[in-house]
Predict the 3D structure of the following.
Amino acid sequence: MDSDRPGQRERQREGEREEGVPRTKGYVMDIKWNALDAIISIVFLAAVLVGIYFGSAKLFVLLQNEQFFNSSNINNISFTVLYGIQVILMLGVVWFFALFRRKAYLRDLGLRYYSIVKTIWYSFLSLLAIFLVSFLYVFLMNSIFGMEAPSSKIEVLVENRSISSNILLVVVVLIAPFSEEIFFRGFVYSAFKKSWGVNAGLFLSSFLFALVHLEIYSFIPLMIIGWILAYLFEKTKSLMPAIFLHGVYNLILILILLGRLEIIKLY
């Protein structure tokens, strides 16, 4: 009996390590959905959102007698409704394909705890890289091609002051990072990674992330940002760092815009 105790203790330790796998950083997510699920979701979202956009534009023309529905004539209600529909649809397809159809768990999407200290540190390093790349990109576009950066959609919204700064802050800093990270990193990247590997997943998910923002001038910087967010998710196996980084980046940009227009003051 004494001779068997070391073996029993070793087996017990192995069992404890196996039982503790979901709580360790070496936890392997069980991705049950695939690239086809992601592609169907993207096509569905594109078709529905385009239909909603042009349908709303037509309705807006009839009711407001405006020429077109764009960032210059949108208000608090229309912005909240349209963006709310987009978020519901994005999270809805993730729920349907990953959780309902494939019977996955929230942790498989990356919704699991990660070290707060490491999250802040990784976000700080990532922000340095993002702003450095953005500065170099704008400098090269201006000095080589003579192209000035045009106003983005969010800049137009802020400049027109047709939307409450509080609503913009909530949407840009909280809702957008949470919903977009679940969809693009937790769902789309994971699907492409499972079917075609990490490199293809990084490229395709960041490409789509840049594409949906509809900013031609900023396409390359947005793609690099998407790549960094996906890489961070791949290394940490948690969406927490990506959501935090996305939120802080958006917060810095929106505060710069709001402060520059003297809606709030930056000290």
About this structure: Residues 1-6, 9-24, 261-267 have pLDDT under 50 and may be disordered. Residues 31-260 form one domain. The two ends are 73 Å apart (CA to CA). Residues 45 and 51 are 10 Å apart (CA to CA).
